[in-house]
Specification:
By secondary structure, this protein is of the alpha/beta class. 42% of the residues lie in helices and 23% in strands. The longest helix is centred in the last third of the chain and has 13 residues, at 139-151. The protein is globular and about 45 Å long.
């Protein structure tokens, strides 16, 4: 058995979920700037996440659900998941984003499990608060070690794919580390870099 862990935003999905939400409220440029700085490692991930989600206060939850059902998957997403499963990999998604987005996408892609965060809502609108298992910069690293122990899989049989600074902690626990159209800080930690928006390129690596 082998383990493949993918980031979601700008990796399995072509874009940042929170940017789609912010566009509805007219805050997209502000949120995009914070997101880019966080992914480049210039801001603390937790602090930047809390700051960005606070801007979503008042967004109707039905709008969140509608957006999440129509998020654009990255080119080759379904093919790479199918191809890895054929090669004996258990495929999992870790996201510093939101379960509202990862759950339907991972179900459609055939991914075994998704770990992400939850947007809090009351009376059908977002409160501007967030909680969950992927809120901190070290969260992905902590979770991948727990999964490896649970599945009895070593780092030599672990593949990780991501694009930003919050993927660094899981990169530390895998021998095959793919930086996908990634920020410089993650490219430096990678064993392989894919610079075209086509996840099928990963099948050439494994």
């Amino acid at each position: 058995m082998k383990l493949a862990v993918f980031d979601f935003d700008s990796t399995l999905m072509d874009g940042e979920t929170i940017d789609f939400f912010a566009e509805v409220l007219g805050f997209k440029d502000e949120v995009v700037t914070i997101t880019e700085r966080a992914m480049a490692g210039e801001l603390d991930f937790y602090a930047s996440l809390v700051e960005r989600v606070a801007l979503l206060k008042g967004l109707p939850y039905e709008k969140v659900e509608a957006i999440c059902k129509t998020l654009p998957m990255m080119n080759g997403a379904k093919e790479v998941v199918d191809g890895l499963k054929e090669r004996g990999y258990t495929v999992v998604c870790f996201s510093g984003g939101f379960r509202d987005a990862t759950k339907p996408a991972c179900e459609a892609l055939g991914i075994s499990a998704d770990f992400s965060n939850f947007l809090h809502q009351e009376n059908g609108v977002l409160t501007g608060t967030v909680g969950g298992e992927m809120m901190y910069s070290q969260a992905k690293g902590d979770m991948i070690v727990r999964l490896q122990n649970l599945l009895n899989i070593g780092r030599e049989d672990t593949l990780v794919v991501g694009d930003g600074a919050n993927d660094l902690s899981m990169f530390a626990h895998a021998d095959t580390r793919v930086a996908f159209c990634a920020k410089a800080i993650l490219r430096e930690a990678a064993t392989h870099c894919v610079d075209v928006k086509d996840l099928r390129e990963i099948l050439k690596i494994v």
